[in-house]
Each structure stands twice: as C-alpha cells, then as structure tokens.
Design goal:
LacI/GalR-like_sensor, alpha/beta, Rossmann fold, 3 domains, 339 residues
Length: 339
C-alpha cells in the first residue's frame, strides 16, 4: 500500500508539500499540486480521512435523527436531506431513535466525539435541557419537530394551521362528530395540530369529545386498531382527522373490509401527502408538507453554522402547509340528520 513517503519520493517534493496538497492548503503552486495529484493517482495513494479529520477537526459528515425510517415522511426527508448535503460536499448518516430518549442521547455522542460536524433533529425524544450541553461540540438544527426552549435554528411548519384547515374542511362537509388521531404525546408537532383541531371546532361552537381522541398511532396497523375502537363506541364519529397518511390508510382499509363506505359512513383526513394517498381507493384527503424545501433549508443553515461557529442562536424558518382535497372526504356531503 502506497504511503505519503512514496508520493514524496516520486515527486521529489517534501512531505510537508504533499500534506498541503492533500489538505487543500492555499499556498501551493498549481504546478506542484498537479504533480502531487498525478503521483497519488499513479501510486493509488488514498489519504487517511480519519487522520485528516482529527487534524482539521472536520469530518464533512452530518447526522440526521429520525424516529422511524419506514415512515414515508421521514424516508422522503432522508432522501431530500442527503441530496442537499451532497450539494455542500457533506455525507449524511441516519440515526434512527425509534422514539427512545436513551438512543437519542447515545447518538448525540457522535457530535461530542467529533464523528460528525453537526446534527439535524427531525424528532426530539428528550427535553431541550438534556440536549443543550451538546451545543459546545457543534451545531444542532431542528427540522420538522420543534421546542420553543431551544436556542438553535428551527425549520418548521405551521402545524396549528395544518390541524385547523384539515378540521375546518370536515366541518364544512357537515360533520360535527369528528375524531382526532395523533402520534407521540411528547411531540410538539402533534400538540400543535391538536390546538388547530380544537380551534376549528370552537369556531363552530363545538367542544371536543375526549372519547374521540386516539393517541400513539403511527402505522397502518394502528389505523386499523383505531377504526375498530371508533366503531365500538355507542355514539360513533362520522369523520376523523389523523396526523399521518399511514394511519389514514389503515383506517380506510379496515373500514372497507368491515363493509363501511368512505366517505359516506366515515370521512378521513391524513397528513403529509405521501404517495400512498393516491394509491388507496378512495384517494386520501391530506395536508401537504414541503419536505424538500425544509430539508434544503436545514442543510443550508447547518453548513453555515459549521462555518461561522455560531451555534446558540434561535432562528425560526416557517414553511406553509396546503390542504389537498381528495375522495376520502368528498363525494356526498354529510348531514347530521343522516347519522
């Protein structure tokens, strides 16, 4: 295996000059740079990236924390983030926490031990006070999930508005018995959507019936479970707003299997606008989230923070949401007298 000494011997240059070329030092002539690169190519010499990282205190690697890679929202976010990172010359590693506070803290040690240059948190499993100490080791950017206590840049969506427009759409279809289905109780995203949900109800002089609250629903299987619970109620809801297209698809699948009609017997709204919303029959009304734009912004910001070393500055970047109306809520307007 070729060494830096072999490159120096072939070029007739010093090890110092070879090292400067490898580390892109500005004070090397183009003639010498070309000579060194050609020698490295001829010898098949590959610089030790780990050693260079230790010297430069830079890995050119970012970490993206997500709870579950199989969730289509996070899968799309991963792809968009990797593309954006590559445009900046960075590699991306994925840290799947599976909603575990312990796993999240263990992964944060990647920043502490200088194995990554920065961390993008798409979900948060711990309180900010437990994550804040890691800022001394590098930048942290929140993307999707947020915490008002966090003194770092946050790329987020107006989730209150998202919950509001989804629920108002169901109210405009004539529904008054509307169920709410959400994910993790720790999530500020889910809490904000519920605020928007209740805001829309209050505008129609309606109060939320806690019997219609279904939490900790993430998967298609959870959606099926939620549907069975709704149908077991003596006073059943006629519509449901879910925080996930996966859950919405599960509800629809189970409803159809049990002989119910969508939307005539139950109107369903999802969230994310994933590909599955156009594959089900009926197609799913949902709220579109601009994932690619969020990912690009998060990467742009963290690269800037790596360069400026200004980590503890709270900045909020908010993107709009859009209601996409499809067949799972429209087709025959519901009236309370039909229940």
């Amino acid at each position: 295996m070729a060494t830096i000494e072999d490159v120096a011997k072939l070029t007739g240059l010093s090890r110092t000059t070879i090292s400067r070329v490898i580390n892109n030092h500005p004070y090397v002539s183009e003639e010498k740079r070309k000579l060194v690169l050609e020698a490295m190519e001829k010898l098949g010499y590959v610089p030790n990236s780990s050693a260079r990282s230790l010297r430069n205190q830079k890995t050119s690697i970012l970490a993206l924390f997500i709870p579950r890679i199989t969730n289509p929202f996070f899968s799309e976010l991963v792809e968009a983030t990797e593309i954006a990172a590559a445009e900046h010359g960075y590699q991306l590693i994925i840290c799947q926490t599976r909603y575990s506070p312990e796993k999240e803290l263990n992964y944060m040690n990647l920043l502490k031990t200088k194995q990554v240059d920065g961390v993008i948190l798409a979900s948060i499993q711990n309180e900010w006070k437990q994550l804040k100490p890691f800022l001394q080791y590098g930048p942290i950017v929140l993307c999707n999930e947020f915490d008002d206590c966090a003194n770092v840049p946050t790329v987020r969506l107006d989730q209150v508005y998202g919950g509001y427009i989804a629920t108002k759409h169901l109210l405009e279809q004539g529904h008054t018995k509307i169920a709410y289905c959400s994910g993790g109780y720790r999530s500020n995203v889910a809490k904000s959507r519920e605020i928007g949900f209740k805001k829309a109800l209050s505008e129609y002089k309606l109060t939320f019936d806690e019997r219609y609250a279904f939490r900790d629903a993430f998967h298609i299987a959870d959606g099926k479970r939620v549907f069975r619970k709704m149908m077991a109620l003596s006073d059943r809801p006629t519509a449901v707003f879910t925080g996930s297209d996966e859950v919405a698809a599960g509800i629809i699948s189970e409803a159809l299997a049990c002989g119910y009609r969508i939307p005539e017997d139950l109107a369903v709204v999802g969230f994310d606008n994933q590909a599955i919303t156009e594959l089900t029959n009926p197609t799913i009304t949902t709220v579109h989230q601009p994932i690619k734009q969020m990912a690009q912004k998060a990467v742009d910001i963290i690269v800037e923070k790596i360069q400026t070393k200004k980590y503890d500055v709270q900045e909020i970047y908010e993107f709009p949401l859009q209601l996409i109306v499809r067949a799972s809520t429209v087709g025959s307007r519901f009236h309370e007298s039909e229940a």
